Every structure is written in C-alpha cells, then in structure tokens.
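re: ur question from yesterday

yeah so i grabbed the chain u mentioned. its 153 aa long if i counted rite. heres the sequnce exactly as i have it in my notes:
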Amino acid sequence: MDLREMISIDRIKVNVEARDWKESIEKVGELMVNTQCVFPEYVEAMKKVAESLGPYIVITPGVAFPHARPEDGVMKPCFALITLKNPINFGNPENDPVKMVIALAAIDNSQHIQALKTLVDILSQRELVEKMMDASTEEELYNYLINYHPSEV
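ran it thru and got these structure tokens back, copy pasting raw so excuse formatting
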C-alpha cells in the first residue's frame, strides 16, 4: 500500500488542543476510530506502548509516531495525523516539544512498508515538515502528503 491508500482527509486535523501526550494520542486515535480503521482499544494500546517504551515515539524533532500491534484492534491499515495548537513535551529532550502526531495502524508486518518509507522520506525533509506543522487547514496538510514526490525535493 502506498501513502495515498493509507491516509485520508478525514483522518487529518490541524490545531488540535491537547493537555498532554496522552490526550494527543487519544485525539489522533479518535480519527482512526471514527473512520472504522481501529477499535477504541487500539488507542489505549498506543498509550500503553508509549508509556512502556518511553519517549522513543518522538522520532524526529517535533514529531511523535504512536502505534501499537495489529492484534490490539486494527480493522484496516491507516495513518492519522494531527498538528497541535500548543506543542507538548513527550519526555524526549532531543526532539521535544511535539507539534505533529502521526499514528499508524497496521494489519501485518509488511503491507504498510511502502507507505512508511514515503512517510520517513517526507519526515527527513525538514522544510516540508515545518510547512506541514504550520498548515492552517486539513486540506493543506493532506496535499503536502499526497503530492509528495521524492524526485521533486
């Protein structure tokens, strides 16, 4: 699956208000639940994973990547993405505070790999990440994702 197959505009929200890292995971998880990609217990599992493994989910400056295991309640593979109105510390001194939270739901160990590679490529483009974090509408953020082509950067 490529990134376009795994992200949709109804799983993107900009300027979300969250009090702490747990609530930010709940908010991004809500988008996955509301679009029938995961069961509510998957959102709880993402919080547990973040708690047990610590701030490793902050994968690059300003970006957290919560996820859990397929058996924790995934119905279909997807990504969901929010930007936070006020950045939040996840406890990762190198990469805090977090401004963008990208959640992954995968149904196995391989189907989402192509989409993940594209996402990693996008996240390695610091200028593009800054634009995504500053997007003022869901459409703007969605377009950065689906119109990304490595050869153009």
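noticed a couple things. The first strand starts at residue 12 and ends at 16. also The mean pLDDT is 93.
anyway ttyl
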